[in-house]
Design a protein that fits this description.
CATH architecture of the largest domain: 3-Layer(aba) Sandwich
CATH topology of the largest domain: Isopropylmalate Dehydrogenase
Strand content: 15-25%
CATH class of the largest domain: Alpha Beta
Number of helices: 14
Number of strands: 16
Helix content: 40-55%
Structural class: alpha/beta
Bound molecules: NADP nicotinamide-adenine-dinucleotide phosphate, magnesium ion
Largest sheet: 10 strands, mixed
Radius of gyration: 23 Å
Shape: globular
Amino acid sequence: MEKIKMTTPLVEMDGDEMTRVLWDMIKTRLILPFVELKTEYYDLGLLHRNETEDRVTSDAANAAKKYGVGVKCATITPNAQRMEEYPQLTKMWKSPNGTIRSILDGTVFRTPIVLPFIKPAVRNWKKPITIARHAYGDVYKAVDLETEEPGTATLTFRGVSGREQSVTVQSVDGPAVFQGQHNKESSIRSFARSCFQYAIDTRQDLWFSTKDTIAKVYDGVFKRIFEEEYRSTYRAQFEALGLTYFYTLIDDAVARVIRSEGGYIWACKNYDGDVMSDMVSTAFGSLAMMTSVLVSPDGTMEFEAAHGTVTRHYYRYLKGEQTSTNPMATIFAWSGALRRRGALDQLPDLVRFGEALESASLETLSAGIMTKDLAGLADDGFPVRAVTSGEFLDAIAIRLREKLA
Ligand code: NAP
Ligand code: MG
């Protein structure tokens, strides 16, 4: 079989622990036998980030920006416990995903891989629901003030010109608590652009919700910027593709989402997206089946699994055990990245390879061959054989080879 050729490199970001082990297995068994893989490789494993004083993370993000497509393995974000586990760490390095997101100025879209034999908790959901979370500002960058006596809080903005704008927050008659939040017009606009762009790329409707009846000015700005971007830049393409942009209040959106059959993108403000993405992913079944893509306003995409490095499995692997860790979301990160690379470079064979990899993986699951986490979720009566990660990947490879023959 002749291997599929690539023209432009894909930015490959390796990672940590069990997902690093899966990363290598996926490449060796499912990609390298079929594709003349061209990647620019960055090792984002914790120790290499430490050795490069985390420069490798920003280098990888800048390379993704240059080439337009990246694929990332899950990585450890160090905390106090990790500092003890890895005494050679010179600093508690920041979350690589946070660093990459800020360099790409991107929005994260999370989509579940939906299976016919695992019923979502919401019976009428048939297609995936993709959540886009605005990952800047609001309560996540707020300042708080707790006070003891009666008095008045004011919010003052002092411009570089010296001009001041001020409002009274509240006069209180006793102890109270206050919070100051902000967001930036530029960040909201990037969020809107990434959402419209991704809706067009994936041919899905876009829903956006805030609470602008209550937060008339604050959420009103979000609503206005989305409308402006839609009218000025995206409406023609939406109409040509038969797509809808739909704005509604967050509480109305929640009710409609529950009654819907899925198949759209739901753009949420930072806090709403934090809460709703956990609700939607849990209702669809499993964190191990959640894919994630970071999309920048210029269309750069970085694909990954939504889950972490699966530490508990890694420690069993180090003891020599064959683990049954689910590689689906990481496989779909690769297939998504290869399809995108193929679409940008006009390489239909590469696009078809990405599609074949996805359907071979789904058919393996439909044949009842799956990792332990899914075996426990399958519908009653569905015949299931729980296998190790290696056996699962081999079963996919057989089907993939047949498809490509
Ligand atoms: P996690 O790695 O997602 O794992 C949490 C638990 O979920 C696992 O122990 C496992 O449950 C189950 N699970 C997750 N993915 C699975 C898979 N593919 N197959 C089977 N089971 C799976 O989250 P964590 O333990 O909170 O975090 C571990 C490390 O990952 C941390 O250092 C964190 O910083 C990092 N992290 C990275 C990213 C990223 O790079 N995007 C995201 C989140 C976390 P059982 O053990 O019960 O089988
Ligand atoms: Mg959360």
